[in-house]
Design goal:
Layout lengths: L9 H15 L1 H5 L4 H20 L5 E6 L5 E5 L16 H7 L23 H6 L1 E10 L2 E8 L2 E2 L4 E5 L6 E8 L12 H14 L4 E6 L9 E6 L4 H8 L11 E7 L2 E9 L6 E6 L2 E2 L5 H20 L12 H4 L3 E9 L4 E2 L5 E2 L2 H21 L1 H33 L21 E6 L1 H10 L5 E6 L11 H6 L1 H10 L16 E5 L4 H17 L1 H5 L3 E4 L4 E5 L2 E5 L2 H11 L6 E4 L8 H9 L6 E6 L7 E6 L10 H13 L3
Helix pairs in contact: 3-6, 8-10, 10-11, 12-18
Bound molecules: ligand TSJ.
Ligand TSJ binds next to helix 3, strand 2 and strand 7.
């Protein structure tokens, strides 16, 4: 492949300026030049092949990560047109790769750019690649062109004959390390995630992902995603680890107002709804008109059915949308000519025609489905009616906690041993597992600034219980009233009665589980407490070592071994293993775990990036004896992080 000289006219100069702009401000075109942007290049290319599949001319796309982190995307479509476009004087291929926002307005075919947030096309990928080679197989020939940092190396040329009947497009590129300064290494799992999603959203399409970055002698990793059922299989996949409420998975599709609509849904026995919405195969996490249409139709259709079949009496309230969507898993996928994205992050569909299209198709087809499947209708409505009752009960319970916290300080839980200092800045509360440990802690504490709230047994897992049960739970009610802040939309951090909330549980698996349940509750009901750094885990020791009237505490087996190494292993060592907080006398509990001068606490934080992972970083609070504990704490922090929250 020689680098032939290419003559530049005025048009070509404009093109170069266009791609130069992309290289100057890549963030404007792909959002970021970090890892996410790097992966975005692949989606941008694959989107073109998916369009070819949607047009009905392609059923297989192969994506390969090469050993050197270059990428190949290959499809068996018609091949990008190679003839010269009269207006631009360029081949179709060159238009696609060198003109910014080239939207396939050529060829007269129904070519649509699957554009969303950053639907910017192949020319942007070309501009941001150190080099890119495209091969098109069509009309019995194989054509090729190469670009370097967006610049044409030679005009499209024939490089060989095509096998009988073969057609397709193959793009081979290397992301430019000058642009992707952070990383040019691809993550197989990130690509897998998105490509699987694409395959679900395009029924019948086969997408293969292969990773050639393997150790010598090992087989490459390769997976193929192919779903004849499309989004119906997507719902099946999402509900796989759950217990579905009924066997059928609903699937509705149609065309209305120039909007192509596909919806699939099934309920499971949980209490959370998971609805995923897509516009032109792009996820819309903020929803929009398509989601609104879906919800409206679902609520109306189920209420109509419930009334007509006497499952709701005339004097009873309608079910709310939330009641009906309890435990719902659904996919809504619309394809639309000119999507408008709104909202802060431009991830919310704005086209009003989508609302009516989805509502119309879901309304009609769901009505028919319920008539044909009365048992499914009954299952869903019985669950929704339970949800309605639970919601009423929860509202009453919540009103109660509201009234209590309005009284500020009055109505504190009976089991709480409050501190005397009334300035929250100085105060901390220990949430202690078990009444006996609670007793020791009450004796040990510094009364002025330390409050103790003992909780009995395992607290409720708020992920697995309905709201009414949560609000009726005594341990949870006690925590809510003790903290003083209220919860959810009532939450007010200025009412917080303690600067530190310290969870104190046994240093064993059960203790870790209880701590997890408490963190889960705090995270779901008052996440600001964690975000603002008010939540801590106490660190009780595992061992006490006595020798020649001296005492050491060890917080792990490793630490015990280290101390034993230092003091010598002989029969003068008296080692006590603490099986729980309850085995320590108040004095020991104070010395090792509660005394602000000597203890070590772990501060619980939320990983800003993912927002969903609770992370624990240690904060050392005073004391010079901290150093030897550090190692253990770092290990333990990881352990806590990995708890399934
Ligand atoms: F965009 C791209 F260059 F990056 C790219 C495009 C990359 C890959 C891997 C594939 C494709 C692509 C484009 N696959 N299939 C097509 N099809 C067309 O461009 C095409 C073919 C025929 C006609 C026609 O009207 O005859 C129209 C079009 C747009």
């Amino acid at each position: 492949m020689g680098n032939e000289e290419v003559k530049y006219g005025a048009d070509q100069i404009q093109i170069l300026e266009g791609l130069e702009a992309v290289r100057k401000r890549p963030g404007m075109y792909i959002g970021t030049t970090a890892s996410r942007g790097l992966h975005h290049l692949v989606y941008e290319i694959v989107d073109n092949s998916v369009d070819e599949a949607l047009a009905g001319f392609c059923n297989h796309i192969e994506v390969t990560i090469n050993e050197d982190n270059t990428i190949i995307v290959k499809d068996n479509g018609r091949g990008i047109p190679v003839d010269v476009n009269h207006k631009s004087g360029l081949t179709g291929v060159e238009v696609v790769f060198t003109i910014l926002h080239a939207g396939g307005k050529f060829g007269g075919g129904g070519y649509k750019v699957s554009g969303g947030l950053h639907g910017v096309g192949a020319s942007v990928v070309n501009a941001l690649s150190e080099w890119l080679e495209v091969q098109v197989t069509r009309d019995g020939k194989v054509y090729e062109q190469r670009y370097e940092r967006g610049k044409v190396c030679y005009p499209l040329k024939v490089v060989g004959d095509a096998p009988e009947g073969a057609t397709g497009t193959r793009v081979y590129f290397k992301p430019d390390a000058l642009i992707f300064k952070e990383t040019t290494i691809y993550d197989y799992n990130i690509l897998k995630q998105r490509l699987r999603e694409m395959a679900f959203l395009t029924k019948g399409l086969r997408i293969t992902l292969t990773d050639l970055r393997v150790e010598e002698g090992e087989e490459p990793t390769s997976q193929t995603f192919h779903y004849e059922g499309g989004i119906k299989e997507f719902v099946e996949y999402l509900n796989k680890s759950k217990t579905s409420l009924y066997d059928e998975i609903m699937y509705f599709e149609g065309n209305k107002n120039n909007v192509q609509v596909e919806v699939s849904l099934q309920h499971n026995d949980s209490y959370t709804e998971s609805i995923y919405t897509f516009v032109n195969n792009i996820n819309t996490p903020e929803g929009g008109t398509h989601l609104e249409g879906f919800k409206a139709a679902l609520t109306k259709t189920f209420n109509d059915y419930a009334r007509a079949n006497k499952m709701l009496k005339d004097n009873e309230d309608n079910l709310t949308g939330e009641d009906i969507r309890e435990g719902l898993t659904a996919i809504i996928s619309v394809k639309i000519e000119d999507p408008q994205f709104e909202g802060q992050t431009k991830q919310k569909l704005g086209n009003s025609e989508a609302r009516g299209a989805v509502a119309g198709i879901v309304g009609e087809q769901l009505t028919y489905f319920l008539e044909q499947n009365p048992n499914v209708a009954k299952q869903i409505l019985e669950k929704a009616i339970l949800a309605q009752r639970a919601r009423d009960a929860a509202r009453k319970a919540r009103d109660l906690t509201r009234r209590k916290s309005a009284l500020d300080g009055l109505g504190l839980p009976g089991k709480l041993a409050d501190c005397s200092d009334k300035d929250p800045k100085n105060c901390e509360i220990f949430i202690v597992e078990g009444d006996s440990a609670g007793g020791s802690a009450k004796t040990a504490r510094s009364r002025a600034t330390q409050a103790i709230l003992p909780l009995r047994g395992k607290i409720l897992n708020v992920e697995k219980a309905r709201v009414d049960k949560i609000y009726a739970n005594n341990e949870i009610k006690a925590m809510i009233t003790a903290f003083g802040t209220g919860i959810h939309e009532d939450f007010d951090i200025s009412k917080l009665r303690y600067n530190k909330i310290i969870i104190m549980t046994d240093a064993d698996v059960d203790g870790a589980h209880i701590a997890t349940l408490m963190l889960t509750f705090l995270y779901r009901f008052m996440p600001e407490l964690i975000k603002e750094g008010h939540v801590y885990l106490a660190q009780p020791p595992l061992y006490k070592l006595e020798k020649n009237k001296k005492v050491w505490y060890a917080y792990s087996d490793e630490e015990l071994n280290k101390i034993l190494q230092d003091v010598g292993r002989d029969q003068n060592n008296k080692i006590q293993r603490y099986k729980g907080l309850g085995e320590m006398d108040p004095e020991q509990l104070w010395e090792t775990t509660m005394d602000p001068e000597r203890r070590v606490l772990l501060r619980v934080t939320i990983d800003e990036e993912s927002e969903s992972d609770i992370d624990v970083t240690f904060t050392t609070l005073m004391g010079d004896k901290v150093e030897p504990r550090r190692e253990f704490i770092e290990k333990n922090a990881k352990f806590v992080k990995n708890l399934d929250i």
